[in-house]
Amino acid sequence: MPTTVKPKKAPPPKARSSTSSPKPVPPKDEDSNWVSAAELVTGFVKEENNSPRTRGRIYCCTAANYKSVSDLRRPTGIFSLDLGIGGGFPAGGSSQVFGARSSGKTHTCYCVASQIQKTYGDEAIIVIGVSEARGDIGFMRMSGFCVRYPEDQIAVLETNRMARGKPPFTEEEHTDLRHQIGHVVFLQGDTGADMLESTIDAADRFGSRCQLMIIDSLGSLLTPEADEKGVGDKLYGGSSGIITTWTNKMGPKFNKPREDGSLLETTIIGVNQVRALIGGPIPNMTRAAAGAKGWEHAQLINLEFKQGEPLWKDSKHTELSGRTIKWGLKKAKSGCHDGAKGEFNWFFFKKDGEDAHDPIFWKDIQENTIVGGADKITDLVEVCKSLGVVEIGGGWRSVKDEDGKTIVRTQGDEALAEKVANDPELEGMLREACLRFSNLNIRYQ
Questions:
Q1: Distance from CA of residue 398 to its chain's centroid?
Q2: Which string of DSSP letters, residue by residue, matches 208-260?
Q3: For a pLDDT cut of 70, what percent of the chain falls above it?
Q4: Tens digits of per-residue pLDDT, 125-164?
Q5: How far is CA 253 from CA 12, 59, 60, 72, 208, in A?
Q6: Of 47, 222, 303, 414, which is most buried, counting CB atoms within 10 Å of its CB?
Q7: Residue 101's pLDDT band (boundaries 50, 70, 90)?
C-alpha cells in the first residue's frame, strides 16, 4: 500500500505589536545613498520652504505642524440651529445661507454678529459687504446686532420726530443712538467685483482680528461686464465668474499660515437668494441663485431657509404674529453632516408704545421692550427638554446642577421660558449644559 504523507503545517506568523512601527528596510546594496523616509520628507519640506522659486508663495509642512481651526465656531444663538451645524458657523472659511424672501437669512446673519459682539466686546470687528439694498440699522438693532446711527441720520430722525409734535431726543437718547459694540465696517462698490476685492483687502489688513464677514447678497452682484451694458442688453455668465475668482483668491488666505504662523480665523457668510426649478421632477424645488461651482465646493456650510407655517395672535387666525422658519443643511464639511434639519419660531418685531418711525434704542433691546425675531428662549427650552437637561415630571419642569441639586422648578414650559428670559446666568448655564450633553468639543473664542 502506498504510504500517505501528511503535509506539515506552516507555523503561524508572529503577531506584531500594535504599538510597534515597522523598521525601515535598507536596500541590499550597502554602498547606496539610501535615506529613510523621515529624512527624505524633512529635506523636502526644508527645501520647498526655502526655494527661491517658491519662497513666499508655497507653505509646506508635515502633519505634525498642520493646523486647523475647525473647533472655533460662530454661533447664531438659535440653539437648535447651532447644534445642527456643529456648534455654529465654522471659523476659517466661507459658508452660505440661502432661501426665499422673508425666510430669515439676513436676520440669522445679524444674530451671528450679535453673538460676536457678546463674545469679543470692544475688540469685535465685523465687515459687511453690501451689494443689494443698504442695511437697515433699526433691523440690525432689533436682531440684537448693536450698530450706531450716523450723525446725519440722527439729525433727520430728530427733525421728523419734532415734526410729529414730539420733543427732541434727550442727551441720554443721543448717547444711545451713537452706541455700538466693537467695530462695524461696511463695504460697497460700483460693481460686485469691486466690493469682493475689498473683502480680500480687509482679510489682509485685519486678519483674524476680523471675526465675521457678511456678504449680502451674492445673487445681486453686478459684474463689470454688466456695468458696461445697457439695461436691455443680453448678458451671459452673470456673477458666477467674479464669485469663482474671489473664491480662488480668498481660499489660499485661509489655507496658508500668516507671517506669525497663525491661520486666518475669519468666518465669511454669503447671503443668497433662490431660483425656482421650473419643470423639475419635484414641485417647488429651488436652488441657490449664484451658480459659481468654485464657490459651491469651497463652502464649509450650505444652509437653506424656508418659510414654514404661519403663527397667529389669536385662536380665530385673524392676525399673523409670525411664522415658523425651517432650515436644512445641504452641505457640511466641518463638524456636522449633510441632511440635518429643524425649525424655530420667528415673530414680527413689536415695539410697545412707540411710533413705527422712531429709531430703535438699544436700551429697549436690553430691557426686552422690543420683541420679535427668532424665539431663542423657547428654542433653547425645547432643546434642553430633548437632551434631558430639563427634567419633566408631569406638568413640572426642573433644572438641576452638576451635583443633582434642583436650582429651578417651574410649572409648564412657558413659565420656564419666562424664567430663562429674565435670568441670563441661567440661560448661559443651560447652553453650556446642552453643549456637554451633545458632546461638542468646540470653542467660541
A1: 32
A2: GG--EEEEE-GGGPPPHHHHHS-TTS---STTHHHHHHHHHHHHHHHHS--TT
A3: 82
A4: 999 998 877 889 999 999 999 999 999 999 999 999 999 8
A5: 54, 11, 15, 17, 11
A6: 303
A7: confident
Residue 153 CB coordination number (10 Å) = 13
Report the relative pairing of strands 274-276 and 286-288 from DSSP bridges: antiparallel
Phi (first) and psi of residue 68, to 5 degrees = -145, 150
Average pLDDT of the residues in 228-238: 48
Residues 129 and 196: beta-carbon distance below 8 Å: yes
The answer to whether 380 and 83 have CB atoms below 8 angstroms apart is no
d(CA 47, CA 313): 69
pLDDT value at position 232? 45
Task: List the domain boundaries for the chain.
Answer: 67-146+181-361, 375-437
List phi, psi (to 5°) of 261.
Answer: 90, -5
pTM tops 0.70: yes
Locate 272 and state its grid cell: 443668497
Q: Which residues of 284-323 are buried (b: 16+ CB within 10 A; e: fewer)?
A: eebebbbbbeebbebbbbbbbbbbbeebeeeeeeeeeebb
CA distance 254 to 273: 26
Q: Domain spanning 67-146+181-361: which CATH class is it, in words?
A: alpha beta
pLDDT digits (tens, 9 = 90+) for 345-401: 999 998 765 566 789 999 999 998 888 999 999 999 999 999 999 999 999 999 998
Q: How far apart are CA 324 and CA 104, in angstroms?
A: 10
- What is the sign, positive or negative, of the torsion defined by CA atoms of 112, 181, 69, 214? positive
The grid coordinates listed for 97 are: 445661507
DSSP 26-37: --S-TTS----H
Cα 24 to Cα 34, 64, 124, 213, 384: the distances in Å are 11, 20, 52, 49, 54
Higher-pLDDT residue of 126, 291: 126
Beta-strand runs (E) in 289-414: 299-312, 320-332, 341-351, 370-374, 390-393, 396-400, 406-411
Closest residue by Cα to residue 387 from 343, 336, 439: 439
From the list 112, 132, 110, 131, the residue with the least C-alpha distance to 360 is 110
CB-based contact 336:85 (threshold 8 Å): yes
Q: How far is CA 267 from CA 210, 215, 302, in A?
A: 8, 11, 13
Say if domain 375-437 classifies as CATH 3.30.250.10. Answer: yes
Is the confidence at residue 234, as pLDDT, over 60? no
Return the minimum-mean-pLDDT range out of 28-32, 56-60, 233-237.
233-237
Task: State the alpha helices, DSSP H only, in 137-189.
Answer: 137-142, 151-163, 171-177
